[in-house]
Amino acid sequence: MPDLLFWLYLTNAVLLINHEIDSAYWKEWELFRLPGGITGFLLLHFPLLFVVLYGLVLIVKHSVFGFIFSLILCFGGIFAFVIHTYFMKQGRKEFNKPISKLILVLTLLVSIAQLIVTLFIISA
Fold first, then answer.
1. Which one, 32, 63, 81, 114, has the greatest CB density within 10 A?
2. Distance of CA 11 to the CA centre of its chain
3. CA distances from 55 to 27, 32, 64, 91 (A)
């Protein structure tokens, strides 16, 4: 089961990183009214990406903190799907391309699977 968690975490991280690349295309900082434009957006992603990747290291080491990072990544993926779906239903045009939607749907599905596996490992 830990190997499955590793692959789910890695897949989810790749999906979310691709979503963030897509976010730069859509100027997500404007959608969320974040200050600093592209510079602030990119600076914000240095610690975020570090945390996501460090969480994978902790999963490999079978650290308790790895499970916490896993839960955070799961909820981040679910949140990304929910908030962007909400914005699209409000008529926003961002993330309305088929590839953007596919990344969001896959992120949701992998996040749910990862959440189930993480909770199963924690409860065992």
1. 114
2. 10
3. 27, 26, 10, 35
Task: Dig out the tokens for 123 from the structure.
Answer: 């409860």
d(Cα 18, Cα 15) in Å, to the nearest integer? 5
The token pair at 64 is: 């308790």
The tens digit of pLDDT for each residue in 78-116 reads 999 999 999 999 999 889 999 999 999 999 999 999 999
Is 80:19 a contact under the CB 8 Å cutoff?
yes
Q: Around 29, how many Cα atoms within 13 Å sit in the side-chain half-sphere? A: 15
Those residues with Cβ within 8 angstroms of residue 72's Cβ, 6 or more apart along the chain or in another chain: 51, 55
Tokens 């962007």, residue located? 84
